[in-house]
Amino acid sequence: MAVESLSPGRSVAGRALRSPALHSVVAAVLVGALFLVGTGADPLGAYESVVSGSLGPDGIGSTLTTGTSILGLAVALAVPMRAGLLNLGGDGQLVLGGIAAAATGLHVPLPAPLAVVAALLAGMLAGAGYAALAALCQNRFGVPLLVSSLLLSYPAMSFASYLARFPLKEEGSSLPQTRRLPEGVQLPAFGSSTVTVGLVLVVVAAGVFVFMDARTATGYEIRMTGLNPRFAAYAGVDGPRLTLRLMAVSGAVAGLVGAIGVLSFPYRFIDGSLTAGGHTWTGLTAALLASAAPVGTAVAALFFAALDVGGLAMERATEVPRELTQVLQAVVIVFLAARFRFTWRRARRTENAKHIEHAENTEHAENKGQV
């Protein structure tokens, strides 16, 4: 019995050690070490500064603040990716959610707590509606989701920029920003840190994703569609309807992240601030690294958030540019893509060999019958 009880843990540990994601991260760390050696820096000291700068007492707050955006966007993009759909319009949905939250917070005639709720809901609705538009372009007009979602981001960002520069612009300011939200229309922060209740909302969204993926019929349909769309359609899954629902959920989570950004310091919408950090693409990288698995996506998102914040500490301690952390992210994806490519080729060769063997056996049986 003791051996049986230990075997599941060993199986999980074995799968983790054989994970392509883990291999890709290790390879990226080794490549980064080579870069550091080439610049004359100490790799161990540099990586130690990344860890202490992101997870130490002075950096954990920044990591959690950055992780709020990256985790939220990673979850948003992983939801459709789980079904084999790629939403590249995260920036547009994020920005629309932010400007909708700002407009609602500035003009809704409600008490401050209710105004915060209304702003969050407005951001989610704006993101969900705009993401659903990309799904409709695919379902009705045959425009691939990858193309429609990406191209729709640009008019969304331009529209939000127009609102921040003209109708909602703060009078007397030279910056393209809206007026500051009224007193009390903001998300509560934890102590004196910059971490707000937005982190809790994003964690709840990730938890719902985990539950939906593992415990609901919809989650099973999503996974089945991602593995084999033809089989899913044969089994009765309505592909266009599923695409519309998943994109709406994806856009709602992205819009929620935009609303959280506006309801946190500096409590206003600033043109370009929500997309300046590139958190949408970092979230996409995290979802790709984990193959859109809910728990893996969350872990990868926090890993990249720590890299992003730790890169600044590394730059201060070793004078190595923080762009090295971006190189590490790119190397992770390159190694992961190469690993999947080799795995696919190996599986394809094995499948072809089986087909050839089956054909030879059939031909041999037919010849034997004729004799």
Write the layout of secondary structure elements.
Blueprint: H1 2-17, H2 20-38, H3 43-55, H4 60-81, H5 90-107, H6 112-141, H7 145-165, H8 198-215, H9 217-227, H10 229-234, H11 239-263, H12 273-276, H13 279-289, H14 294-318, H15 323-370
Helix pairs in contact: 2-15, 3-14, 4-8, 4-11, 4-13, 4-14, 5-6, 5-7, 5-11, 6-7, 6-11, 8-9, 13-14, 13-15, 14-15
Account of the 3D structure:
It is a single chain. The chain has 371 residues and is mostly helical. Helix content is 77%, strand content 0%. The protein has helices at residues 2-17, 20-38, 43-55, 60-81, 90-107, 112-141, 145-165, 198-215, 217-227, 229-234, 239-263, 273-276, 279-289, 294-318, 323-370. Helix 3 (43-55) crosses helix 14 and helix 4 (60-81) runs antiparallel to helix 14 (294-318).
